[in-house]
Amino acid sequence: MEPDVLISVKNLTRLYGKNKLAVKVLDVKDLEIRRGEFIALTGPSGCGKTTLLNLLGALDRPSGGDITFEGKKIFGRGEVSLCRFRREKIGFIFQAYHLIPTLSALKNVMAPAFPLGSGYKRRAMELLRQVGLAGKEGRRPDDLSGGEQQRVAIARALLLEPDLILADEPTGNLDSVNGRGIMDLLKKLNQRGKTVLVATHDQRLAEDCGRVIRLADGSIEEH
Ligand SMILES: Nc1ncnc2c1ncn2[C@@H]1O[C@H](COP(=O)(O)OP(=O)(O)O)[C@@H](O)[C@H]1O
Ligand SMILES: [Mg+2]
What we know:
The protein has 223 residues and is of the alpha/beta class. The protein is built from seven helices and ten strands.
């Protein structure tokens, strides 16, 4: 394996349902992601984008196959080790932001570090500044626009310096101007060295990425 390969996927499958009723919704034979890539994952609704992202981020377990991350298989281990893997290596951004409504923007960004104790306030403040939210640290999600909430979620994903950012239709709830702003932010992060994989069915946004992976019925289309 070449040293700049971050992720390697072989014969990864995910089935839903049991026995005769099982349906294979994902079947990825071969996929490599290199450190520093900016990849768009596209394809129609239901083609398996979320299923693949959830497996890459170890939020779900495969039915078959494994994912190698920095040369190590991720699924042959227990839940505690998987939890650490997610916390240390992956920054996840969801379409619906998933902020905690009762916490300020600042506390939301600090949330991934709650199990680790205090000491992340300065970093969280700096990240909020970087995503253009200086001065809004004390606001709760309800008092922020959709675009601003997604920026908080991006800052949160960056708190513990993940190697890989996985974004599942992060612009799906936003108008085109805000959606463009979020993509520009992801691009900036990529230019600063982060590996980014973003699921989108917006073809124009996808064309802006360094590489496009198209899924159809759970498999990667050859091109
Ligand atoms: N928990 C589940 N149980 C059964 N089927 C599911 C479940 N989650 C997703 N699916 C099915 O798997 C397929 C892929 O879904 P998904 O990964 O969410 O696609 P996408 O994100 O591209 O819209 C769809 O056919 C969907 O209905
Ligand atoms: Mg999806």
